[in-house]
Amino acid sequence: MLDAAFIRENLDAVKSNCRNRSVTVDVDRVVSLDDDRKRLVSEAQSVQQRANELSKSIPSEKDPARKQELINEGKTLREQKTTLEKQVKQVEEDLKAILLQIPNMTHPDAPVGTTDADNKVIKQFGEPRQFDFPPKDHVALAESLDLVDFEAGASVTGQKFYFLKNEAVLLELALVQYAMTTLVKEGFTPIITPDLARVEVLEGIGFLPRDPNPETRQVYTIADTDLCLIATAEITLGGMFRDRILDEAELPKRYVGLSHCFRTEAGAPGRDTRGLYRVHQFTKVEMFAFCTPEQAEEIHLQILAIEEKIFQGLGLTYHILDTCTGDLGGPAYRKYDLEAWMPGRGDGGGWGEITSTSNCTDYQARRLNIRSKSAGQKGTRIAYTLNGTAVAVTRALVAILENYQQADGSVIVPEVLRPWVGKDRIVPKSQK
Predict the structure, then answer these.
(1) Best CA proximity match to 344, nearest among 124, 129, 117, 154
(2) pLDDT in tens, 186-213
């Protein structure tokens, strides 16, 4: 969340940033509401000051008529104060509601654009595999190898749910172990997070769990509670230090979290809906860092390098996108996406997102009231947060199955995963 004072001082820049991000919000109203808040607070303070003066003078007043007059004035002042406090509360709620809609500022080097077509490719690793046989998509491979049961998932829970089976289960566990082992060696603290979080924590991270529009709502809420199923461990990892002050001598704090992720995928019919690419539940290993402003840029590049290391280890072809302003999402100051080549995607193959990493500056920490302080420093400052996907298991499974498929219908297991899977090839049941 941007600070109201910052918006006031940088009004034109904030308006321009909203336009670049295709966000429609009344930025001028922030200034007017902030003015109203300051005025009402000042009036309430004046009323309180006068009430304090009366409370001291009433006991010493000897004239009964004058004393009653002061008592009546005190009663009126209490009523005025109550009214002003209610007005202040309402204005602050209105102000916060607008501030929550305003996106983070954008890195000056991020591409300006309105759709994912404006994202900029800044690096590619490897070349798409050339097949000497017609490649299958991951759905056909999963069915022929008895790895996923989509029909049972739809019957038990609904569309876009699934049962992983046989070697797909071992691949998921292997991907989690591979990612966790890699991140622990990089100095990240491993965490298994809750799969539920309070509404205000989701709002702090940048989600809109109370979004009244079912076409844009992205999270599942739990009826009769203030809890939601998390869409990513970014939510729970970011919420760990809510309302805390961090010692800057201990920063950065870097965590790798394991969780299930639940997403409604509202408003996405027809977009990559086949199979495992876009589902309502999946397992993810997520990186998260708390740091000072001075550390953020370097940590962002470190997270990106780790994502590359993981997918280079899996032997997958990918490219890196510098995400454009219109595709950033509210909290991100700058975001890089890794897209893997997926031979079964579209007509003749295509790129599909497998990870992303975002520098969210102080946007999330301001909402969550996470501050930092160094020895000898007067006061505190807002911490910075960054996040990055190590492995989103279902997306990784899509890329592995499609890229490692063989002419005989089998799929080679990436070498780094074999110690956990226990075999180097997944073969059709007829060949077992």
Answers:
(1) 129
(2) 999 999 999 999 999 999 999 988 777 7
